[in-house]
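Input.
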Amino acid sequence: MDNIKDLEAKIEAILFTMGEAVEADRIAIALEQDVTVVRNILRNMMIEYKESNRGIQIIELNDSFQLCTKPDMYECIIKVAHAPRKHVLTDALLETLSIIAYKQPITRNEVAAIRGVNCDHAVSKLVEYNLVCELGRIEAPGRPIAFGTTEEFLRNFGLSSLSDLPIVNPEKLEDFKIEVQEELQLSFDFGT
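Output.
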C-alpha cells in the first residue's frame, strides 16, 4: 500500500498532466483508493500548497480537482507570455528567406521551384516571424499570392534597404551551379 507522500505525488502528477479538473472518483480509481481517502488527501494538499507559498494551487470544482496557477502570479506569467521570443531560423527557413529577399515579389510555387521542395511551411513560419509578408496577388491563373520581405527583416539583418543585400559574385554563382549539378548527378547515380 502506498504511503501518503506517494499518493500525493501521484495525485500531483495526475492533476498536472491532465491540465483540467479531474473528478475525485476518477483519481480514486486510478490510485486504487477509496474516494473519501483521496478527497481528504487532496484537501490536505490544498492547505499545504497555500501555506507553503507556492505559485500553484489545487482548486475544487463540483467534486473535481484542478492544479492551477494562483491568481497573484498572473502578472509575471503575462510578462513572460508577452515577452518577445527569439525565433530560430533553420537552414530551410534561411534558404527560403534568402530566395524571397532576392527574388521578391515571388510566389510559393516559384520558391518551391527554386528550392526543389515544398516550401509552404517555411513561408508560413517566415510570415509568422514577420520577416515576410503578402504583397498582393499576381495576375496569373489562380491569382497566387506574392511574398516579399518586411521592415522587420531589414531590422533583424541590419539592412537599411534591400539594396544593401550582398551581391552574389558571378563566379561564386557559377560554382554553386556546378555543385548543385554534381549533387543531382550523385543523387541520380545512387537512384539507379
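The CA atoms of residues 179 and 185 lie 10 Å apart.
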